[in-house]
């Protein structure tokens, strides 16, 4: 990877080739008449008809998380302190990660690789729940002015889902909702530690060739059929729900991946997904909303819904290109170091103890 010196990098003028339309988001929904058991949901109650129409890249208002119920109903979740909301509202470039359910250790970006320019212009925000925050305290990691190293620690209260993996999809897939004034964001799974300067990564993955979204292919699998089989083999999620999702996608045109097909839309139909670089353009934001809505409707295994969402978006809008860069996984490994989850660490220690 040939990275430019970040002191010489200048953000390009936003390309006129990017699709332009006004995307707004549903903020609140009213209780339907006669629905006594109705409960407001974080993602709202999107109908299949609304879901279908949401794929149109046009001026519209769509479901995209953070939907509130009417007055008198409790919050639908993902509540942040006012000071934290004020902080992230000032971010124009954000590096984002999260730890929910105490799943990982806090990995501070490699400080010597982060330039003075990035320290000045980039927000590093780590979302955590209260249980994870207590563990950080117990391990002697106490925030100093709200920061641990480069990370601004933002505690999320009232989690909207009991499944921590699904909660983690909110900052992963909806950075444009959490950071409403950000122009760019870099998502990093908490099992990764950033090894490169954020501005260099924006230049390498987006600016040089005019992309608005960048994600790596999976290191092993390239067909959704293979990914479905692997999820079942490892019992990653309820098999019947996976089948329901997969059958739905096949009925709506999802085909097996063929690497030799010259007309294929992507070099792989399965992303690695732990590292995502975005420009917050209308098309990028729309794709992020659509992908999140699939994760919310079906399973939190986002690799199952990525290719379907991308292909349907492209198919629905043949006159509006989406400049997505699916890069090789070796490039992801060159910019972020992989660590074990806490549960894997314990399992590894236990295995060693039995030898």
Strand order of the largest sheet: 5-6-4-3-7-10-9-11
Rg over alpha carbons = 20 Å
Residue runs with pLDDT of under 50 for 5 or more positions: none
Please count the beta strands (DSSP E, at least 2 residues each). 12
Describe the main β-sheet briefly.
8 strands, mixed
Number of domains: 1
Counted by DSSP, the helix tally is 13
InterPro entries: TOD1_MUCI70, TOD1_MUCI70_glycTrfase_dom
Protein name: TOD1/MUCI70 glycosyltransferase-like domain-containing protein
Domain TOD1/MUCI70 glycosyltransferase-like: 23-341
Organism: Gossypium gossypioides
Task: Describe it.
By secondary structure, the protein is an alpha/beta fold. The chain has one domain (43-353). The chain is built from 13 helices and twelve strands. It has helices at residues 48-54, 82-88, 116-121, 130-138, 164-173, 175-178, 198-205, 224-233, 239-251, 282-297, 306-316, 329-335, 342-354, and strands at residues 23-25, 60-62, 93-99, 123-128, 147-148, 151-155, 184-188, 192-194, 213-217, 271-279, 324-327, 336-338. The chain has an eight-stranded mixed β-sheet with strand order 5-6-4-3-7-10-9-11. The model has no long low-confidence stretch (mean pLDDT 94).
